[in-house]
# Entry
Amino acid sequence: MATKKRQPPQYIIGVDLGGTNIVVGAMSADGKHHFGARSIPTSAELGAEGVADRIVGLIEGVILDTIAQTNANRRDFIGVGIGAPGPLDRDKGLVVVAPNLGWRNFPLRDRIGERLNLPATLDNDANCATVGEWWQGAAKGASNVIGMTIGTGIGGGLILDGKLFHGASDVAGEIGHTTIDLNGRHCKCGNYGCLEAYASGPAIATRAREVLVREETASLLPSLVGGRLESITAETVYRAAQQGDAVASEIVRDTARYLGTGIANLLNILNVDVVVVAGGVTQAGDALFVPMQAEVRRRAFRPAVDATRIVPGILPGTAGVVGAVATFKMQHLGTL
Amino acid sequence: MATKKRQPPQYIIGVDLGGTNIVVGAMSADGKHHFGARSIPTSAELGAEGVADRIVGLIEGVILDTIAQTNANRRDFIGVGIGAPGPLDRDKGLVVVAPNLGWRNFPLRDRIGERLNLPATLDNDANCATVGEWWQGAAKGASNVIGMTIGTGIGGGLILDGKLFHGASDVAGEIGHTTIDLNGRHCKCGNYGCLEAYASGPAIATRAREVLVREETASLLPSLVGGRLESITAETVYRAAQQGDAVASEIVRDTARYLGTGIANLLNILNVDVVVVAGGVTQAGDALFVPMQAEVRRRAFRPAVDATRIVPGILPGTAGVVGAVATFKMQHLGTL
# Structure
């Protein structure tokens, strides 16, 4: 009787490239096991080639860690999925423009792939975060998903009819730059009234500072930053709100109203099953989520509201890596 | 030698049910030939069963006309596609709520199908109009399409990755009820600042009346309606603008700005190839389309703007019937 040789497990590496940090991890190709997640500063000042060196070095370290943990061989690593800030050209594997990195038309996919002699794929970081939550997180099993990542900016990804949706030129999902107030606040994209100009982390901090300067209201906020208002961040605001500070609580409620408006627009357009809200903003907890959901109910159509769950992400810090592995599977293997 | 019997052509009937009119037509199943389009008033006051009678009668007339023109047999008619105002339950074939008709949970699909002894399908009227322009009109050949129908309301339909997109509970595409100004005008949906509250036909007329009452500006508009401001419609505004009237021209430019904002939001979210703008608003011509496209360029991301064409519909009056036939093919035959 012939003995059937057991197929050794295969591994895929996921890269989440951000303006501040690079996060890399490995996963078994079936998605069941995670190995050796590591993070280092991006050091964008080194330029594109320098950052690519750092990514390659980090991947090498993760591969070694994984081998040490699993007795895998190097040939069991079948590829690298990369999530990077957009806009991208997925066909060519280019980062077309990345303002936070100072890159233009950098061939990130092939640079990484060639250095490691592994197939590589590239996709938008917000798409990867959404796919991560869909594959293994808060949106598991859903057919239609909006993923929002709220941090320095507001990024988005769309799963529609069970597939990651890219649009005609890979820029679908830019939900941070949808207008909620056409005569409103100036956004760094040049437009007026974008959701991101109200509800990103820096926008939340800015609105808090504006109230403190304008109204001279009693507030905990200055004391939390040693009187240096320029040091207020969104996290400072959430912390003060948790301590019952009236100014901070109003800022959080306003943020809920802005985000609720943006989400209601998305529900009326896309009628999804799940909206995953991830990023720093989830630290605000129910103080944000409860009024946000109320605003959505006020603004979106009943059948769209009834069909959806609005939930925080459950893979903070790792959704991007998990999703990068998943996009490698979808792009390179044609299946998830 | 056996003679190969020629397969007789098959025909599909399309129904476009609106609050004001019912339009019915027949098409050859390959979409190449149109027959016997007819329109009658809906007469919603007759109630759901009465309107269903009128639809059935109109279909019978169209079948007879088609037979007279083609020598077809009655058995060559293979089904009826129905487009109706939503929200709908497509699975059950119900019109769930139709405020303009006064209907609730009316089983329109089966009522029509049973009376004619033909398979029938039901889809949203704005979806049908979009599918019509996609199958045979201004968006032919595109993979990602937004169809907007701007009349009494603003309806929308989405073709995404080459398929009509319905969402989780058949309400996707409600683009008229996306907020463009969160503290803005009251909308009849109960919300504030919806696109429809600014740019539907009645909203355009309301804004014109407001300017005339408030500003006592010299304008052609009152003279075009015999001094009865309540008789001003969107068409009156377009006509006055074409004659160079300053008030009307400003209303049209503002409309362009509102619609441009709404479309820019959709492009940043969905990055489609084509946006088809249909309905009465197309009568305003370049006076509307040129500033609308400028507003879109100002607000949407460059790669999204560069990837898209924004065009008027080219099937006025018939897109709904053509699309109803197409949705029958997609739902019942599984192909278009």
